[in-house]
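Quick start: what a row looks like.
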Amino acid sequence: MTMQSKPKHLALLTVCIMLATIMQALDTTIANVALPYMQGSLSATADQINWVLTSYIVAAAIATPVTGFLEARLGRKRLFLIAVAGFTAASVLCGIAVSLPEMVAFRLVQGLFGASLVPLSQAVLLDSYPKEKHGSAMAMWGMGVMVGPILGPTLGGWLTEAYNWRWVFYINVPIGIVTFLGLSAYLSETKTSRTGFDWFGFAMLSIAIGSLQMMLDRGEQLDWFSATEIWIEAVLAALAFYLFLVQTFTIKIAEGKQPFIDPSIFKDRNFTIGLCFIFVVGIILLASLALITPYLQNLMGYPVVTAGLVLAPRGMGTMVAMMIVGRLINRVDPRILLASGLLMTAAVLWEMTGFTPDVSEWTLIRTGILQGMGLGFMFVPLSTITFATLPGSLRTQGTALYSLVRNLGSSIGISLVIFLLTRNTQLVHAELAGQVTPFNDALAALAPGRIWDMATTLGKAALNAEVTKQAAVVAYANDFKLMMVVALVALPLIFLLKRAKARPGEAAILE
């Protein structure tokens, strides 16, 4: 894809691009808080209602890598408009769904159309802004990608409480209409080409991603590899991914065939290392959010709206950090900013390992702001470094892979921390319960007024509830510690990135 000339009304085009990014990113988390309300309306069980989330993730993950091919065939503007219109229409259908099968089907459609929005948004901004302003452009784009999921629970909780759970989908309608009209007016079309399509490679990657997502979603419910279904999904994912790799690296380009993903894209060292980094960012971004939300509601007793308001400053921290980085990216080595973000995030996660249900709201807000700033310091320089040396012809395919890996990191991270939370709660509960006996003097020394009389059924139930609560606190701390370790383990990868030097009259050029 050749670089486009600077479009007219660049500011208005940027606003429309940001709206598309926020609209798609918001839907990854906005429905979470509304699930209990959906469960009753759609007559679904607790296990079944999770398909409202996973169907969207699976569809988006499968459809994301095909963005490059569709853009070449249809043109960037036409594909963008189709994606926005389809996503908006699917949101309306989700809002009027009256049964679980309908909701799952409409969420699949929403995910399929929404998959192209983020990589197209990133590619348009990179092509619309000159190279010396890529850092600032990625800062703006990153706000939508990072802030959307963070503000999702807050906005979703408010819409559900004030109106109805269906409004978590209807909110996309005005955004979608404005975005569609703006892109129609300000986005220029790109040239199309009749390139071939590797249907076998696409099918194998789709099966691999779909099977992996199914395994991650169902694993906790079925006790992982003790269930035949999990084994089937794991084997299917591994086999399909192996066949995809074989197809990708052995297809004969000289005969006019094109692999689904051009293997030459991985020759760019910064891009390959950037994929590893964004996988880690995906884990930390949504996995930490998936933990702190139930922590506030279940252990601290916060109402849904209050929990969302306490989490909102986290998004503010991200926005502040991205504005700062947007100004520093051309003056400071991006690797320094990336390392600072990782260390800040790790430090906050370490502090969170000491959280108890008595932690103050100020501590929650302060750590949320700092964690948001850490993610903001990571995301912008990472996007800039990852695509700095990638050829323009591979940019759309690269942004699609970038979004795919981030989504996979998020889904794997969420599944892992929730599984460990459940398992560790059970293990710690068993260990603590072993110490709860009538002969334990520590119980008698606790504050008076406790209804922990082990001679009564009510007392035993109250004592068990307290043991469960304390076990959960320990399990959450272990998960926070795990994410801290993940952030620190990724730190040495920074030294594998190409160094950035500022040349006279130019931005930071990667060498």
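That is the whole record. The domain at 1-197 is CATH 1.20.1250.20 (Growth Hormone; Chain: A;). The first strand starts at residue 500 and ends at 502.
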